[in-house]
Amino acid sequence: MMYQNWRWQPNECSLPKFDAKILLEKLRGKRLMFVGDSVNRNQWESMVCLLHTGIAPGRATWTVGAPLSVFSIQDYNATVEFYWAPFLVQSNSDDPRNHSISQRIIMPESISKHGIHWKAADFLVFNTYIWWMNNQTIKVLRGSLDQETADYDEVQRCTAYERVMTTWADWLMHNVNHTQTASYFITMSPVHWQSSNWNNPDGAVCARETTPIMNTTMELDMGTDRRLLDIVRNTIKKKGIPVDLIDITTLSEYRKDAHTSVYTLRQGKLLLPEQKANPASFADCLHWCLPGVPDTWNELLYTHIISRS
Predict the structure, then answer these.
(1) Which residues make Cβ contacts (< 8 Å) with residue 96, sequence separation at least 6?
(2) DSSP assignment, residue 79?
(3) Active-site residue, 192 included
(4) Which family does the entry's similarity section mention (predicted)?
(5) Is 284 one of the catalytic residues?
(6) Are 306 and 16 in contact (CB under 8 A)?
């Protein structure tokens, strides 16, 4: 239970304490939408839990759907939503319940099919990272996803990612009224799959890790591809779009103890005892426990939102 004592302290400043009532007032009559993959859904779920502390019993409902899930708060006429788009652009993985892991194919210049659902949001929170990390290359479609056999090129990760970020930035530039809508991009969420990365070669991935990495001077290498962060930062600067970059990467890398590990779901069911006994195969060292690290991400997001005039 020690996780309850950990709180991230930024250098040279203090984050304001999360106050659900203050944020709910900021959201009155508005839509806060998270767009991205299951890690972004993890952050959306965290936000729903945090806001619950300020909502009267029975005055909120939620509908989990595909690709859109909505948490509605009646007394504030507000919604907190999650839209599944793991690559932001169109792909053969756009069905959150039925998609390909080994044969992911993207359409890096096609975003309007998703974007039409984002236009009316007042706060947009984007991410895309973990689905890019299976291989050094990714399949880029030449034709249409409706074709019986897909014709594609194998493109280097960074090259394809830059194309997607350019498409995303262009969409924001031409489809969002930035005086009314605030946009944010959450940086890459790290994984803790190799215990040798924190000098524990005999560990079982993130399983049985109960404390953070305490040595904050230790050089971290969790396999995070920070080149993608540079691409996002450079694209925002080059296009001149008003997007706040919320960097959650390094602070999350220290939290090897904070993943769902063997206390996770597979196909909607908790792991069986024999599966829990085999963490190397079944531990989830990608998603995060709640309460936990995504609450810190939302404290950062909260600070951005309440600071807006």
Answers:
(1) 38, 66, 67, 84
(2) E
(3) no
(4) Belongs to the PC-esterase family. TBL subfamily.
(5) yes
(6) yes
Tokens of 136: 């050094």
pTM of the predicted protein model: 0.95
* Cα separation, 204 vs 289, whole angstroms: 18
CA–CA distances in Å: residue 235 to residues 87, 162, 181, 232, 240: 16, 8, 19, 5, 8
Q: Which of 37, 259, 287, 295 is catalytic?
A: 287
**Arithmetic mean of pLDDT, 129-152:** 85
Query: How far apart are alpha carbons 120 and 188 in whole angstroms?
Result: 26
Please give the Cα distance from 236 to 228 (Å, whole number). 12
DSSP string, 241-278: --EEEE--HHHHHT-TT-EEETSSEETTEEPPHHHHT-
97 contacts 158 by C-beta, under 8 angstroms: no
Q: Is 153 a catalytic residue?
A: no
Residues 306, 23: Cα–Cα separation, whole Å: 7
Name the active-site residue from 19, 38, 170, 244.
Answer: 38
Which tens digit of pLDDT belongs to each residue from 255-268? 999 999 999 988 78
67 preceded by cis ω (within 30°)? yes
Q: Which residues contact 231 (CB under 8 A, 6 or more apart)?
A: 158, 161, 162, 165
* Secondary structure class of 57 (helix, strand, coil): coil
Dist. CA 119–CA 257, nearest whole Å = 38
The yes-or-no verdict on residue 88 having pLDDT over 70 is: yes
Residue tagged active-site, from 37, 94, 257, 284: 284
Give the sheet arrangement for strand 152-156, strand by strand.
Answer: 90-91, 105-107, 137-141, 152-156
DSSP class per residue in 126-175: E---GGG-SSSEEEEESS-TTSSS--EEEEEHHHHHHHHHHHHHHHHHHH
For residue 186, the surrounding DSSP H or E stretch is: strand 182-186
